[in-house]
Amino acid sequence: MTGIIRALSVMALMLALAGCGGSGVEWHAKNIRGLMPDLEFTLTAPDGEPFTAEDRAGQVRLLFFGFTNCPDICPATMARLQNAVKQMPQDMRDEVTLLFVSVDPERDTPERVGEYVDFFGDNIVGLTSDEETLRTLAKRYRTTFGYGKPDENGDYDVSHSNAVYVFDGQGRARLLIRSDQSISQISEDLETLVRQGRD
After folding, report:
1. Residue 20 marked ligand-binding
2. In the chain, how many domains are there?
3. Would the annotation count 74 as a binding residue?
């Protein structure tokens, strides 16, 4: 009898853990499912038109805050993410979109942001807005940004997080890509999310 009770207890624990962990996938990135709000925003696209999360609904979307004058973190992150997408099976690549949100609206016009993201490849949307809207969006995902003191030429630095948030096709927050993840690990995670969306 004791053995049966023990077996039932183990089964109940396994079911509880399965319910908490979702699909049971061992992600390389940090699993943030249920910890962050769904993808929701209204920003400005390179053509000057409003762009919302619904415009790429059904796709896996990666959200990254940066600015076009960024000397290191932004270009390195953009290249890394694009290389990860390129490692995915060809029929999956069009199901992933990178959303690059500039938090430097003073210098980064929608057109300039568009030219910047075009340099890195396809399936990247450059977005921006006024500072208040950007701060609201950053706060929604528990991050922030700030501006340094302008130099004699009026140039200034922008501090921002290097976090990359990953949302599934339904706009649910799923993963937080870590800075120490390899390109292959990022690619594997994205491929898994795309496959889940097809099921």
Report:
1. no
2. 1
3. yes
According to DSSP H, which parts of 45-153 are helical?
73-86, 110-118, 131-140
Is 104 a member of any domain? yes
Residue with tokens 């630095």: 157
Look at residue 19 and tell me if it is in a domain. Answer: no
CA torsion, ordered 55, 42, 168, 16, to nearest 10 deg:
-140
160 is in an annotated binding site: yes
Residue 6 lies in a domain: no
CB-CB contact of 156 with 20 (8 Å): no
Prediction pTM value: 0.86
Q: What is the CATH number of the domain that holds 153?
A: 3.40.30.10
Residue 9 lies in a domain: no
199 residues of the chain, pLDDT tens digit each: 444 444 434 343 333 333 344 457 899 999 999 999 999 999 999 999 999 999 999 999 999 999 999 999 999 999 999 999 999 999 999 999 999 999 999 999 999 999 999 999 889 999 999 999 999 999 999 999 999 999 988 889 999 999 999 999 999 999 999 888 999 999 999 999 999 988 8
Name the residue range of residue 42's domain.
27-198
